[in-house]
């Protein structure tokens, strides 16, 4: 418990002290992305050719967070020329720190929140192609959800990007029961959560710089 409290304190300190790394240039577009903390285009909007489902990291606000979710949504829409419904994973996924210490690095209810959206995408929009991404604890949410999806839904998930994958070592750099070729694991140099620890370093907060990389990969998966 003492070790857990130390890691939680370190995470809070890192996220509050330097939410934007010093080497990131703030532009009007990036400010707009950071303000888009909620996206419910699947739940509330019309069906689109592509549905993007994203799970944010621990303590992030909204259902898209600020580190990389909004940026990836924007980049994916640009890569595909629009036609994308972006949907963040919300309640009962509250992105609490404590859930990182559970066996799946997140809770069953967190995983269930993502699964509900995959089910909705298939039933509400049967012709949509699904892509997904998760950051930090959100990567574990996606890992747990996608590996357990029924075959009929899993086949509609064309590609997945995992930023700061907390189960990277445990699951061998992939999502169990899902094609590795359709998965892009993005781990920044020095991000220790990718090495089977829950130690937060500054590297863990840099994934906004990888949004275009992830969007390019997801767009290529949609085209196959």
Automatic annotation (TrEMBL):
UniProtKB keywords: Disulfide bond, Hydrolase, Secreted, Serine esterase, Signal
Enzyme class: hydrolase
Keyword Signal: yes
Gene Ontology molecular function: cutinase activity
Active site per UniProt: 136 (nucleophile), 191, 204 (proton donor/acceptor)
EC number: 3.1.1.74
Main location group: secreted
Disulfide cross-links: 47-125, 187-194
Annotated GO CC locations: extracellular region
Residues of the signal peptide: 1-17
SMART domains xrefs: Cutinase (SM01110)
Matching InterPro entries: AB_hydrolase_fold (IPR029058), Cutinase/axe (IPR000675), Cutinase_monf (IPR011150)
Catalytic activity: cutin + H2O = cutin monomers
One GO BP: carbohydrate catabolic process
Lineage: superkingdom: Eukaryota
Localization, UniProt: Secreted
Recorded family membership: Belongs to the cutinase family.
Protein name in UniProt: cutinase
Upper lineage: Eukaryota, Fungi, Dikarya, Ascomycota, Pezizomycotina
């Amino acid at each position: 418990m003492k070790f857990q409290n130390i890691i939680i304190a370190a995470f809070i300190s890192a996220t509050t002290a330097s939410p934007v790394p010093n080497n990131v240039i703030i532009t009007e577009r990036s400010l707009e992305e950071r303000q888009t903390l909620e996206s419910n285009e699947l739940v509330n909007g019309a069906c689109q050719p592509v549905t993007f489902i994203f799970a944010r990291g621990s303590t992030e606000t909204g259902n898209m967070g600020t580190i990389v979710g909004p940026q990836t949504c924007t980049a994916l829409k640009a890569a595909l020329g629009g036609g994308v419904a972006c949907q963040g994973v919300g309640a009962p996924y509250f992105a609490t720190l404590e859930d990182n210490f559970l066996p799946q690095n997140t809770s069953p209810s967190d995983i269930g929140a993502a699964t509900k959206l995959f089910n909705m995408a298939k039933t509400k929009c049967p012709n949509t192609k699904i892509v997904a991404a998760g950051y930090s604890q959100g990567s574990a949410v996606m890992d747990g959800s996608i590996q357990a999806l029924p075959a009929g839904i899993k086949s509609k998930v064309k590609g997945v990007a995992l930023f700061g994958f907390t189960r990277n070592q445990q699951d061998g750099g992939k999502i169990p029961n899902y094609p590795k070729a359709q998965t892009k694991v993005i781990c920044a140099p020095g991000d220790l959560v990718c090495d089977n620890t829950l130690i937060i370093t500054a590297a863990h907060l840099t994934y906004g710089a990888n949004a275009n990389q992830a969007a390019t990969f997801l767009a290529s998966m949609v085209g196959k």
